From TrEMBL:
Protein species of origin: Natronorubrum daqingense
TM ranges: none
Keyword terms: NADP
NADP listed as a keyword: yes
SMART domains, A to Z: PKS_ER
InterPro entries in UniProt: ADH-like_C (IPR013149), ADH-like_N (IPR013154), ER (IPR020843), GroES-like_sf (IPR011032), NAD(P)-bd_dom_sf (IPR036291), Zinc-ADH_QOR/CCCR (IPR051603)
GO molecular function: adenyl nucleotide binding; anion binding; oxidoreductase activity, acting on the CH-OH group of donors, NAD or NADP as acceptor
Superkingdom in the source lineage: Archaea
Protein's UniProt name: Alcohol dehydrogenase
Enoyl reductase (ER) domain segment(s): 10-334
NADP listed as a keyword: yes
Record lineage: Archaea, Methanobacteriati, Methanobacteriota, Stenosarchaea group, Halobacteria
A Gene Ontology BP annotation from the UniProt entry: small molecule metabolic process
Amino acid sequence: MRAAAFTGIGSPEHVEVEPFADPEANPGEAVLEVEACSINHHDLWILRDGFRVEEDQLPYVAGMDVAGTVSAVGDDVESVEPGDRVLLCPNQTCGSCRYCRDGPETHCERFDLYHGGLAEYAAVDADRLIRLPDTVDSVDAAAIPVAYMTAFRMLEEADVGPGDLVFVPGATGGVGVATVQLADVLGARTIGTSTSREKLDRLETLGADYVIESGGPDEIRDAVLEIGRVDVTINHLGGPYTEVGQNVLRRGGRMAICGQTAGPTSTLTMGDLFLNHKRIIGSTMGTQSDLERLVDLVADGRLDPVVDERYSLDDTDQAFADMDDRNALGKLVVEP
Ligand SMILES: NC(=O)c1ccc[n+]([C@@H]2O[C@H](COP(=O)([O-])OP(=O)(O)OC[C@H]3O[C@@H](n4cnc5c(N)ncnc54)[C@H](OP(=O)(O)O)[C@@H]3O)[C@@H](O)[C@H]2O)c1
Ligand SMILES: [Zn+2]
């Protein structure tokens, strides 16, 4: 088979299509003929910085959000059979640590994510497959897992409800757009930011109630406060946007954090935190059952995952270049 692999660490020029051995289905596994795989900033971290990948693992096939058709199953697999259209939940958990037993599964102390979907075939854990309804096509399905699960769980952890005002710094990427759309499903209102006017115009059509065209933390803080203090900040940017995200919360407000695109550290103001009863919540991914709910929302027409661009396997390097250049609104999907 062919796969788009990282042959070096650094820039999208290191994404090359190479031949690999066809995967086989070991016990408990299914092999998928991959129809679509979306990319995430997490994959870009690997390509740019070698995040959790060693030189000796190159060439490395990334890709966590995989949709396709089952082509083979290993011994003991009864949950799916060849011909089933499926979506992979990329979560990998041990199932036996105290955090797995307590739940949610995202707390597993050995929590990890599947990688390998940017290929014609992928061998995956059969228990992690969700059957796709006929009304959900593979490209839309592949847009859902990492971005929408993460947004879904953060909104849940931050207890977002009808009428809440939710601040989303960097609202135009995978997690950002998913947050705006899902907040809308919940009846909440959103304030989204971007450095691109064109992306913000499109974001408004997806349900954003207020948009701020700026990348400057101070300017963003002032603009949000002019709209009003927020109930919740959903923060995947980290860095200086974290301080802003805290500043603009109302008394008793919550900030969920899942990422650090803009930097791994920030300053927090203690007095503001404790005197105003603000809460900060770390969150990673969502559960497989969150993903099942998201697929149901798409099947029922309540949620339309935003796919900005589709690429052939040979153009996977371009998909990474577009993400790196901040050219995308929502998700970028490769069709191997
Ligand atoms: N913990 C988890 O489970 C989890 C899961 C998913 C994602 N994440 C993390 O969440 C982040 C977002 O992921 P994603 O896949 O949604 O990424 P993405 O699609 O690349 O996000 C693009 C968004 O981020 C903004 N942005 C990009 N670089 C920026 C910078 N240097 N400073 C300020 N804004 C910047 C863009 O703003 P413009 O519109 O101005 O270009 C755009 O709104 C990543 O850090 C990722 O690792 C974590
Ligand atoms: Zn565990």
